[in-house]
Amino acid sequence: MNRASTRRAEPGDISLKSSSVLLVGGDPAYRSRLRSGLGKHVALVDSAEGGGKATKLLERCRFEFLVVNADLPDLPALEWIADLLAKDAAVKVLLSAARLEPTFVIEAMRRGVADVLEQPVDTEGLLVALRRHAAPREAAPGVTRLPDAANRASRGRELIGDSPQMREVRDLIRRIAPLPGTVLVEGETGTGKELVARWLHASSSRRGEFVAVNCGAIAPELLESELFGHTKGAFTSAHQGREGLFVAARGGTLYLDEINEMPFSLQVKLLRVLEEGTLRPVGSDQEIPVDVRIVASTQHDLARLVRERRFREDLYFRLNVAQVNLPPLRDRLDDVPLLARHFMDVLSVSLGVEPLALDTHAIARLKEHPWPGNVRELKNLVERSLMLGELAFAQLAPAPRQDPQPVAEYPLDWTLEEVKEHHMARVLRAMGGNKSAAARRLGISRKTLERRLQLGPGDGELA
Fold first, then answer.
1. Distance CA 316, CA 58 (A)
2. Is 297 exposed, middle or buried (0-12, 13-18, 19+ CB in 10 A)?
3. In angstroms, what CA-CA distances link 289 with 95, 202, 203, 228, 292?
4. Domains of the chain
5. Which of 128, 193, 227, 381 is most buried by its number of CB atoms within 10 A?
6. What does the H/E/C string look like for 72-105?
7. What is the residue-level pLDDT of the chain in tens, covering all 463 positions?
8. pTM, rounded to two decimals
9. Is the distance from CB of 144 to CB of 212 less than 8 angstroms?
10. Contact by Cβ (8 Å): 35, 23
């Protein structure tokens, strides 16, 4: 069944009735189909087979949007767009390409392109893109919005790799992104779980915000209010009412990172929201309807936590409608050169420096490292190297080492919490003060480690 034919109009839809669109390039039959489909939604739509005819049309009529095929038959598309925007910077150019290579996307954005769309682009997908740029909304307080056009255009492109594992991941995301079900993303820290969540949102038809929250970074007693909101006077410091993140993400996607850190009592309430589609703010007796897609992630095996009774089984099954498993970088070392060159190209532009050469020796050295911090560690290494002006191999984080010292018995009068905190502090010391490495060794998030040991962002960080 065609989803476009069954979708109901939403109150928050942005009208394009006064907009004008010019389609430039591409197959004539394809242009004709798009022109026919768009004609029902915009004030004016026209088409031109190439840049030359489009230029003549633009001399007679101004268009708010240009949808340009990257393979124009008569002119280099990016050069033509740059010349056009030099004369009229207000026009919004959407570029469609068969493959969204990172370097191409970056160059397109530098030339002033508002968005890059992956072909084939159907009418519904193009309407979503046009609405996205027709009336950008201000982000609500505390909301992490979807990235800007450059990041949106390259959605999923940092899930780079030609390995079978990554091809399978990308294919899965493309299949499940348009569907409304919840998604569970599992993978070690630094593998790109939030990138997957953002790609799922950007590739869906949802027009609300993308809102991200780390369940381990907020004190358990505050997390319910943060998610569901509260009324004035609901608790001592509630001097005024506040909308929660579910409301901020209405019509969009709420990304719950480190879902395993959510307290049991709150897991019950989250399950009810997912099943009923309504929530009750703290201190209120009124139910509020919510329309939010949930994407949850964890660096742990959530099924194992369920078996160990450390996570609710019913919530696990409700979250795990679709599952994306991200492989660690050590299991796909052949992707390291591609990732390294991608980060070198992207970060050299943002830092305003020349990229460094990655010769055969450098690539071999990178592929020898086990990458305990995964793609994030590789990206940080490339950025550090660009800042130093040389490849910073000497600063590669060491793999977690075994502590040769025997484990001493704890006093019998210690509470379990005291034992846990003592062990966390001991592992942190063993890792030389490196909180990220210690958190990986302990199987918890860095924020959880800092909260349990009452560390500030820079406290105890020796590496």
1. 55
2. buried
3. 37, 23, 24, 11, 10
4. 10-136 (3.40.50.2300), 151-325 (3.40.50.300), 329-395 (1.10.8.60), 400-463 (1.10.10.60)
5. 227
6. CCCCCHHHHHHHHHHHCCCCEEEEEECCCCHHHH
7. 333 333 333 333 456 776 788 999 888 888 888 888 888 888 788 889 888 888 888 877 778 889 999 888 888 889 899 888 877 777 889 998 888 777 787 778 778 888 888 888 888 888 888 887 775 444 333 334 444 333 343 344 457 888 999 989 988 998 998 888 899 999 999 999 999 999 999 888 888 889 999 998 888 878 888 888 877 766 656 556 677 888 888 889 999 999 999 999 899 999 999 999 888 888 777 888 888 999 999 999 999 999 999 999 999 999 999 999 999 999 999 999 999 999 998 888 888 889 999 999 899 999 989 999 999 999 999 999 999 888 888 766 554 544 445 555 667 777 888 888 888 888 887 776 778 778 878 888 888 888 888 765 544 443 3
8. 0.56
9. yes
10. yes
- Name the amino acid, one letter, at 135: A
Residue with tokens 């992707």: 335
For residue 132, give both structure tokens: 């996205």
